[in-house]
Amino acid sequence: MRARDAICWLSLVFVGSASAAVFAADDSAPDVAPTTFELRDGDRVVLLGGTFIEREGQYGYIETALTAAYPYQQITFRNLGWSGDTVWAESRGVFDPPAVGYQRMVDLVTELKPTVIILAYGQNEAFAGDAGLEKFRQQYRKLCDDLSPTQARLVFVTPYLFEKADPPLPDASRWNPALQSYAQAIRELAAERHGSVVDLTAALADVTGRTENGIHLTSQGYQRAALAFSDAVGVSQPVPGTGELQQKIVEKNTLFFHRWRPQNITYLFLFRKHEQGNNAVDIPMFDELTAEADQEIAKLRQSLP
Q1: Domains, the chain, ranges and CATH?
Q2: Average pLDDT for consecutive 10-residue bins of the chain (305 residues)?
Q3: Contacts with 60 (C-beta within 8 Å, 6 or more apart), sequence order
Q4: Which of 1, 10, 234, 264 is the most exposed place for a label (fewest CB within 10 A)?
Q5: What is the pTM of this model?
C-alpha cells in the first residue's frame, strides 16, 4: 500500500512539474501583437521616430485620419519626429553626443505626459544589416524601458519597404530584405511589450510610386499609410483630403515644432545660450498658440459629415 501510494505521489509530482513547465513555457513565449489599437477620450498621443514621422507632421494625413476617426473625443497629438533619427537618437544630439540628445528626447516625452506613444523606428537602423539587428533590438528595448514611467500604451510602426528609383538615384530596394528582418524584430518587440503593431511593411508593399526617391514617401504614400492607421483603429473611411481640418493640423504641428525645435536652438538653450539665451522666454508663448490650434481642430472634427 505504501509503495502504491508512493508511486501515485511521484506520478503527481512529475505530472504537476511537467504541467507547470508547459504553462511557464507558454507564459514566456511571445504572443503575436495585435494589429489594432484604440484611442480614448482624453488621450495625449506622442509620435516618435525619424524622417517618416517628421514629414508626417508636414503632411498631416495620419493625424487627420485618426482625428476624423474620433470626431467627438478630445484627443491631442504631438509630433516629435526628427529626420534621420534612430533608437539611439543619433540625430538629436545637435552639438552634443547622441546620448545627451537621447536623454533630452526621453525628458521631453515624459514632460508631455502621453497616454499613447506611436513609435516608428527601424528604417535607418536597417542599413546596418543583419550585423546590427541584435543591437537594434537591445536599444529599442531600452527605449521602451526609459519611456515606461509614462505608462503610455505603445503602438509600434514597422518600416515600409523602399522602392527602386530611377537613375541616377541608387536602388534603395536592395535594403528590403534587411527591412523585413527589422520589421519582424519590431513585431516581436511589440508582443513582448504588450503593444500594438501598425504594419506598414505589409500595408504599403504593393503601393507603386509610394516614394519620391525610393525612400521618402510621397503624398500618395502618406495617404495609404493613413488608411493603414484607420484600419488599425477599426474605422474604414476615405482619408480626408487637403481640407480645412488637415490644414489646421499641419498649422498646429508647425507651431509645436517651433516650440520644441526653435530656430537658433543652440543660442537659446544649448552651449551658446550665454549669448542670446535671454530670448528663450518667448518660446513658451507657442504653448498657448498650440492649445488654441487644438481647440480649432476640435471644432472642425466635430463638424465632419
Answers
A1: 44-241 (3.40.50.1110)
A2: 39 36 41 95 98 97 95 97 97 90 97 98 98 98 98 98 95 97 98 98 95 96 95 80 87 91 54 47 74 96 87
A3: 246, 247, 249, 250, 253
A4: 1
A5: 0.86
